[in-house]
Design brief:
Largest sheet: 5 strands, mixed
Structural class: alpha+beta
Strand content: 5-15%
Strand order of the largest sheet: 2-1-3-11-12
Number of strands: 21
Distance between the termini: 95 Å
Radius of gyration: 35 Å
Number of helices: 23
Shape: elongated
Amino acid sequence: MPKKRSGGGLSPTQQAAKFLGVSVLAGAVMAGIALPAAGALGLAAKGSVQSFDEIPANLKSPQLSQRTTILDNQGNQIASVYSRDRTVVDLKDISPYMQKAIVAIEDARFYEHGAIDLKGVLRALNKNAQEGGVAQGASTLTQQLVKNYFIEEAGDDPTKVAEATQQTLGRKIKELKYAIQIEEKLGKKKILENYLNITFFGEQAYGVEAASQRYFSKHAKDLNLQESALLAGIVQSPSRFDPVNDEAEATKRRNTVLQRMADVGDISQKEADQAKEKPLGLHPSQPKNGCITAVKGAGFFCDYVRDVVLNDPVFGKTKESRAKLWNQGGLTIRTTLDPQAQDSVQASIKNHVYQSDPVATAATIVEPGTGKILAMGQSRPYGFGTNETQINLSVNSDMGGGAGYQPGSTFKPIVAAAAIEGGKSPTQQYSSPYEMTYPSPVQACDGKVWRNDPRNPAKLTNENESEHGPYGMKEATAKSVNTYYVQLISDIGICPVTDMAQKMGVQRADGRALVQAPSLALGSQEMSPLTMANAYATFASRGMYCTPVAIESITQKVGSAEKSLQVPKSTCSRAMSEKTADTISTILKGVVEDGTGQQAGLGDRPSAGKTGTTDERYAAWFVGYTPNMAGAVWVGDPAHKRHMNNITIGGVYNEKVYGGQVPGPIWRDMMTGALSGKPVEDFNLIDIPDDKKGDGQGKGQGGNSTGGIGGLIGGLTDGGTVNGGTTGDATGGAFPTPTFSLPGNLVQGQTNGGSNGNGNGGWRG
């Protein structure tokens, strides 16, 4: 009786008998003989082999992961992304040489046997008995296809991949049963087609079409004899026979395939010998995968599209199901990106802010009334090197962005809209003194009240002593008068402003709720360029807010068929009356014509907008619109460390950076190009009488205010007082100094100021 080897393993004879039992079983099933479970043949040793009858009857062909193509709104390719680089093709689109080569080297009797090649099994049996292996070799193309199905289903899970490739008798039996099923269901040609589409050829290439492109930069249908032999030879060991990294080894393997083709009669010996003498003829193409390869500077927009698919429930109820959809790929995603607008944004950014500058810029354009994102770009490109980044500076943190940036005075029109919608007249005047203490108490939401600190009250100023009221809304907005807007929000209350912001889609970039304090009026809370552009689009569309969208349509390739997928739709709702929106447009048109935004004007094309500059000049903004496009431009240090004083940006020295001075011209140039050839439309203007009292002064460039984080934010209580105080600057004049800012540590969400208001950092007015 044969003995076990030392260590408890089966002897070669026992292993051979075991493998032979499987072969007999498979042959019997092929012949239609009903046999009992595999265990009756002694094959279920220690439960390692599942009963043949208990294996599920149906094996579903997996949906092969393929590349996804992302297009702009004109159908031009932006980028190609994939989990596995694969393009599924029909057998007729694969070179006959390739078909013959893979059969010759992997399964020469493919067309003669069924799912299992008994001659091959016996041949492998003899070898395995001699070497002590178990169930190795003898796999037909059909069996290999089944194994590849298991690997494809495993995806990138290393545990599942190990299970799909383990050399066990149990897996082999399962493979055999499914191979029989596939042979009966698909037939030889379809099996060969599926095999050539699923097999890994190395160098990130899955399937023969991707491999042909990778190694020869041509389609699989155009492969010649020696090229086909090379690819067929790679399959056995993609790393060992990689022609890119080991030409000599790959050449030997190719020649082995050529000789095998001659031996089985696919080609003559003369053809084989001639092909062996030829060089490999590689013309490799580098794998182009991911948003880093996007054209027109659209890498970050590409990332945004991916995040939409991974996060929007329309693509699947669970995070896992959405990820599976993205990884399987085969998608053709037509986006909202307008190539003309995108080109214009990138050109304007390149002209005004250099990649190597100590600060960066980000810009976004959206379409009023639809929410379509038309362009998205930034000066620091998508990448991993110096002055490159993977952070999308235009969007919120949950969509691949950062913590956002204080919008400064660009938030003031939202306060004005809340006031007008609530019944205030645009001619409403306030004393607007040069210097004042924040009014207290101020009504907030849910019955809460904000109170200034009576022991150290927060104060603010305008540009200089000559700038004082009374002012009406139109002039106060044109000059960006801080004290006017603080009096306005204190008059109407904080809650109407936060409600209006919510209706306009305005939210903090970090996802937290807006802090209810009067400083909100001065743009104290961090937001993204996309948020601000889309908010101003609400004014442009006469009060209709539409949620931003980036995808117009998606088709998915399933086998040789295509199906359309549901995509997120913009949801539009009325945020304010048409009259309110038209009034804001009238006011902001004046900002561009006569106020702080004159450098952003579009000439003969009507436009409206607002500048914003935060204290310490960490950030500068221009946000504006025409009736058919709205855009936002931010300039600053993403790390919130560099003050924009005595700084060179885009080759131009700036003693101090203002919203109208650097972001304004970027906005002007990008919008001019984006709107070229588009209809010139005008606003529905409202007659707003000039202020009865307005001295037209206030063109200075200085101003300070005092106050504290605790006093301005921590003062939101049910009736108590708070502590805190330091110093800050205010806005006003043709080039207003910064409206408002947070200390760097608070921007990152790390401040010593607690909910009780005992802050130790300075807010700026």
